[in-house]
Specification:
The structure is a homodimer of 764-residue chains.
Chain A lengths: L18 H5 L15 E7 L5 E7 L1 H5 L3 E5 L10 E2 L6 E2 L5 E2 L5 E7 L2 H9 L2 E6 L6 H5 L13 E5 L14 E9 L2 H7 L2 E9 L11 E7 L2 E6 L4 H11 L7 E5 L15 H11 L3 E4 L2 H5 L7 E9 L5 E13 L5 H10 L9 E10 L13 H19 L3 H8 L18 H11 L11 E11 L6 E8 L5 E5 L8 H13 L6 E3 L2 E2 L14 H28 L7 E3 L2 E4 L2 E4 H9 L6 E8 L15 E12 L6 E11 L6 H21 L4 E2 L2 E2 L18 E7 L21 H13 L10 H12 L1
Parallel strand pairs in A: 1-15, 9-10, 13-14, 17-18, 21-22, 29-32
Antiparallel strand pairs in A: 1-7, 2-6, 2-8, 3-7, 4-5, 10-18, 11-16, 12-13, 12-15, 14-23, 16-17, 19-28, 20-21, 20-27, 24-25, 25-26, 28-29, 30-31
Helix pairs in contact in A: 10-17, 13-14, 14-15, 16-17
Amino acid sequence: MKTKPDLKIAGSSARRLDGIEKVTGKAVYTGDIELPGMGCAKILRSPLPHARLVRIDAGRAEKLSGVYAILTRDDITSLNYQYGATYKDQAIVAVDKVRYSGDPVAAVLAVDEATAEEALALIDVEYEDLPMVTNIEEAIAPGAPLVHETQFAKVQMRGTSYGAPEKFKGTNVCYYFGYSHGDVAEGFGKSDYVYEDTFRFPKVQHYSLEPHVTVADFKEGQLTVWTACQDPFTLRDHLAGIFNLPQSRVRVIVPYVGGAYGGKLYVKAEPIAAALSWKSRRPVKLAFNVSESFKTITRHPARVRIKTGVTRDGRIVARECEVHMDTGAYADAGPRVTQKAGYRALGPYRIPYAKVDAYGVYTNTVPAGAFRGFGAVQVTWAYESQMDLIAERLGMDALEIRLKNLLKKGELYTPGDTPVDCDLKEGLLKVAEAIDWKRKPSRPYTGKGLSCCIKDAGGTFKIAGATVKMSSDGSVVLLTGTVEVGQGSRTALSQVVAEELALELDKISVAELDTDVTPYDVSTSASSSMTVMGLAVQRAAQDLKKQLLRAAAKAMGKKAAQLTLKNGKVYSRGEGVPYGQVISDHFGSKAGEIIGRGIYRDVKSKKAVLGSPTTFWEVGWGGAEVEVDPETGAIQILKYISAADVGRAINPVQCEGQDEGAVFFAFGHTLFEEMVYEDGQLLNPNLIDYRVPTFCHLPKEFYSILIENGNGPGPFGSKGMGEGGLLPVASAIANAVSKAVGVRIFDLPITPVKVWRALREKKL
Amino acid sequence: MKTKPDLKIAGSSARRLDGIEKVTGKAVYTGDIELPGMGCAKILRSPLPHARLVRIDAGRAEKLSGVYAILTRDDITSLNYQYGATYKDQAIVAVDKVRYSGDPVAAVLAVDEATAEEALALIDVEYEDLPMVTNIEEAIAPGAPLVHETQFAKVQMRGTSYGAPEKFKGTNVCYYFGYSHGDVAEGFGKSDYVYEDTFRFPKVQHYSLEPHVTVADFKEGQLTVWTACQDPFTLRDHLAGIFNLPQSRVRVIVPYVGGAYGGKLYVKAEPIAAALSWKSRRPVKLAFNVSESFKTITRHPARVRIKTGVTRDGRIVARECEVHMDTGAYADAGPRVTQKAGYRALGPYRIPYAKVDAYGVYTNTVPAGAFRGFGAVQVTWAYESQMDLIAERLGMDALEIRLKNLLKKGELYTPGDTPVDCDLKEGLLKVAEAIDWKRKPSRPYTGKGLSCCIKDAGGTFKIAGATVKMSSDGSVVLLTGTVEVGQGSRTALSQVVAEELALELDKISVAELDTDVTPYDVSTSASSSMTVMGLAVQRAAQDLKKQLLRAAAKAMGKKAAQLTLKNGKVYSRGEGVPYGQVISDHFGSKAGEIIGRGIYRDVKSKKAVLGSPTTFWEVGWGGAEVEVDPETGAIQILKYISAADVGRAINPVQCEGQDEGAVFFAFGHTLFEEMVYEDGQLLNPNLIDYRVPTFCHLPKEFYSILIENGNGPGPFGSKGMGEGGLLPVASAIANAVSKAVGVRIFDLPITPVKVWRALREKKL
């Protein structure tokens, strides 16, 4: 355990730096950007789930007064119009086929929204209907219609073999990940009992308060894009590719983002907006409504078959998981999500024999990509539900069976990866105690459930740079590529700078994120900003500090080691010199600045399953108490306690907010959320029919326990968090429901109807 | 002489990077910035040249529908409302007095311009007239009315004594600079002849095509300003002071600037715009019209008395200069301009005994500040006119007398300063040859004139930083604080990067200038960007190159010294690896970037008169041939040849453009330009009545000779240029007029009326 440093500014629940700006409506989001001469863009979307695009004629639309440009497949041939996070399987607008109901077919740029809408109706499109697949079963059925005729398939394996990508030719499988250690058949042989269960996870949407929105301005070989996105540098790379530009001529600016959750990673609305600007030579604003964001990106529906062999006293011997992830019409980040789902399917347990097969499959539905939890949410739902099932079958206590199997601190999840970096027992016992696990429920139809989940950090190889600039008055600007998506990164990263430089927080500001000037960062994702960017920021501040001390030492005639920083001054026994003075003395003028730089990058390892050992392990522990109405099947969450291993909370109240937010978020897919399809049509892509939790669903008792052992690799022993809280929710609640009324739900969401039916079946 | 390196991209007349953008009207200037909810600002200006502000009542104006805010002296008391480049003698809006006709008294923010104008008319102001001073004679007369009752005065001396600032108490003198070497009285004693002449320079305006314009957005302790300015970092410092903010909470963004010439240095329209935004909590656009820019800043009118002692054979023995600079109602940069005028008054000659007294005086006219040439224009006009007068009086050839007295390369202008860094003779002989000096004029009323002027570089202590970021495709973004004011800095600085990195120019882009993210730079001024910022940029590129080579060496298993860069690839015998590949290999991912940093700073010296030895000497040589119409006094410039010591032209065609532009610029104050005052009112602040040269004034033969000896301290032996061409114009033309028709004009501009009158007097 690292010692806890004596912190002054980091470690305190400082007020959000962007708080006032946001609550007063002054904060600038992409939708607020106005440019002179800017047109309003609208997208014509396919009404059919799967069809050949026979003819498209924009002639009538182009003649409409107020229309600046129409974009169809005829316009994009000189561009590298195909793109994608993993495969280039998606086109700016449909070229040969449409692959889901909502697939962009054409786009209009017009003087205003009404004109653009009118023009959409004037575009004549002739489709030729094709047979479709809209779920995993249909997609993997032999002879299923193909979403993509061209093969896009990638195979990644460790310790197992499946064969080459050719194996998937003529199927809808676009990705396979296999992993094993030990011979799982041998493991099952050594088990006393082998249980096999199948769990399902629905298609859900990120539901950010701010739908996708982009402003694009293409002029003279230079593309500038303001956009709500989480990975501006990756986006820049994609856009440079599409428009044949050097990266230095693509500028991505990210204003505040109103929620992202993975739904704003990679390439979304940007190519259409940019292509319209490229064609019209005008600035373009393309703002999606909620329904369009639903038709842009979702979480992967999944089917997880999990087969576990245990000894009679509840020790896990072997586990085999077959995971199918429905990535929709285009792969997006699906292959990486599938890989992570596969890798994360084993759970926080010691399992001598293991085998995982994970498949990503195309269907004629909205593409699925990155989403808070990144593949872990689907598999944790399965393995922590099954853990209770096993306990029930063995007649064991659900806490006891977990404690028996949990990995110890320092044990390996898989060989080559970072050893488990915290005490998994500690958090589990804390939540168990908080929900008074041992005490029997005092009322009927109530029950308690526990869950413990683990995920490695990140789906990408992390590189992050940061710069801090101290002006001649000692105040500091921080340049960081971390996107403020609402998670509070500006405040927390500024606290790291303030701590290192012994400076008041209000002397620090964070520069606008702009790929032209901000140091490179891979993405704001995978709960890793505090660790990865935090380290880059801390190193930048330390670099600045070194220069400041060197300058002060020279001016004061001391050695740098004799000096200390406090409250914006350099001290050497009593006498304090303000930083601004040090800088003025250094430059011989009230001018100049000191710039510090820091960088973080992951290490690669040939031994690790995924190429690079995880930066840290993110853990989620949850304990729930529910009450079920036996007449209606309605579930009320009486109590929910979450615990998060944060290493050291840089801003405790923000950590609690993140963790509680994650739990509340998960109440959605646990109890309510599901994108409903019928005949390939999405029935509920709106705020009325798609149900999310509201304040009335808050449990009476609901809080997060922050575990701070200083065991994180981030600044001051901190550790990434913000996804962990999400992982155990569904299984903890399903486990509690089972305890309350004795029925087990295998398919999320756990709606009253499903519970009521299960209760009815049980009685029959 | 430095050896000329073998250059590929630097040294070529590459096409302007901002050319297409500008000629197609796509380039964004401050006036193009639009923000949601932005109001239009207008200023109420004093109609009186000097008056006490008795009462100001905005009540009626505030009630007008569409008015967002009115700013008067009552609003600004909580701010540090007084500011100024040298002294805090100026207020955001007038508080106690108005000091010139045009002085801002109040400001309005309204929904549109018409409403703002209407509101201006509803502000009731009561003035109490005061006696005024509107020129140098009135201002320095004993018992003159005082422009400022509070004393603002500074005294700087070297080798002479004048007394403390108290000496100027109760006068309009706000600055004094004195310098001497040797006892000048003794020098005159040793002279065969002593001549004393007095020259005058008129009040002229910068006349940038883009008048002053600012967009300000103040919200929640953060001020963002887009503005047409040349020194965003200095402006940031001033604004932080006025609004009590840390510098890190003031962000100054500078889009393209449509001409500056010193008129956009320091603080101009920004405090009013920012204060309106601060009061109204709305974005504000304040765009001056031409007339308002005329009422904002000008060049110093000057009276230069110059007394020179010479030997009979034309050797200068002693010179005494008394310079009075009229800085108008507020000091702005006037004290520094006065200092430089004093320092630059001696000319490029060997003068054993010298004494200079330079005074800055307040008058009730538009403030005067920095202006291309910065004090040198006024004094070179005097000393190079007198040089011909002396030659005439001694019956010597004007070229010969100059050659006899010119400082040699390596000689000192003043002890402690950088020795003269070029051959002054070389350029003079070149322009003499180009205008065929030795050949007598073939037609009557024509004559030739020569002039040679020198100025040290800069009025400020120079600090410049630069950053270059290379992306994973090998393209580069340059971050530089040099403002593109039209001088072509983006192109030339990019050429330096391209040369150092062996990269095509179109792979380089220049980031938007934004004090939050761009490294510190003092200002874009004093012809110094190519040298000062050029070095910072070159060092940044070299720093990047070092890292790139180190990464490539590691990947290629070579030593960095074995590798060379060519066309965007790293070579080691035959095999070239693209930079992007090197970066990907280095980071183990198609991601990341390499960042190089460079910095330049002046040295201070206790021996130097002005504290820091000049970075380089800028020289202007000019030769003119004119024809005078004896009936009308009209002057036609037949021929004008300029020579510029550029060390090494980074972009020759841009250097020529700069030098020719400077000459043409100077035709204005030489022949046409003058701000005319009557009863304290400026009569011609507009594009009709204020005459500037037009294309019809282009001489038939007109070009610049670039002298490239690689003797500059800048990148590849380059040297600052762009002001030099301006300096000799007026005296060369006056000298030619004298040769043509035998009359000597002492007061600029040399209008037909003045020549006609002089001819008439001569005949009488």
